[in-house]
Amino acid sequence: MARVVLIEDERELSELVSRTLEEGGHVVERFFDGENALRRLLNPHAPEPDILVLDLMLPRIDGLEICRQIRRTKIVPILMLTAKSTEIDRVLGLELGADDYLTKPVSLRELQARIAAILRRVDMMRSASRLSTDTDGTIVHGDLRIDPVSRDVVAGQEVIGLTAKEFDLLYLLASNPGRAFSRDYLLASIWGDDYTGFDRTVDTHILRIRRKLGGADSIADRIVTLWGVGYKYVLPGGVS
Question: What's the pTM?
Fold first, then answer.
């Protein structure tokens, strides 16, 4: 069972989707405009959804802006619905951090399958992260070992010297393989909400981490740039 936040202004479609998901055992919260949906999603006291089903064309605040704002602070999976079929709309949604998209008219069976696939992928990544993490929080991904107690990073047989922020950044990414993190999210998580420094700080630190991990064609390639969004870490072999 998953908690689904459904944001769709076509009430008939919203009712059909909601009923279908609830029959499948999910809990569904429905919103019909972007403003109220965004207020709920950014409410720190509201329960975190397991997945967000988001229409692209919404009144007040559109789906792309919601996606952009959510990705600044959260890594909840996002399935985007769009009546537009042009490649630029699909690409833009994915670049802003959507995990998948469906073009209307929506097949309810396919929607269920996409949601199940996204949730399954998230669970697999979490399981992979748990299986490769020792009880003290040490991450072991193949030839990369990250120990949060000693704060040592070993790549192959080499101990990598990272600064405190570089270590925290790498540990956060590697602890959540396959998940997209926006620069704003990383900046707030690692440097704090009150940070007022250079706005390319995250990019600069990522560049230094990659260089220290060996550069191109090495462990460094596991840190992937998501253009227009931020970064993610992929497991050995490029699995994401």
Answer: 0.65
Q: What is the pLDDT of residue 199?
A: 64
For the cut 90, the answer to whether the pLDDT of residue 99 exceeds it is no
Distance CA 11, CA 1 (A): 23
Under 8 Å between Cβ of 8 and 63: no
Query: With contact defined as beta carbons under 8 Å apart, do 219 and 163 qualify?
Result: no
**Structural domains of the chain, with CATH:** 3-127 (3.40.50.2300), 133-233 (1.10.10.10)
Q: Distance (Å, rounded) from C-alpha 98 to C-alpha 172? A: 20
Residues 6+ apart with CB under 8 A from 190: 165, 168, 169, 172, 202
Torsion of CA 151, 156, 157, 160, to 10 degrees: -40
- CA 193 remoteness from chain centre: 19
Residue ranges of alpha helices (H) inside 63-192 are 63-70, 87-95, 108-131, 164-175, 183-191
**pLDDT interval class at 124 (50, 70, 90):** low
Cα separation, 171 vs 191, whole angstroms: 14
Strands 139-141, 144-147: pairing is antiparallel
pLDDT band at 54 (very low <50, low <70, confident <90, very high): very high
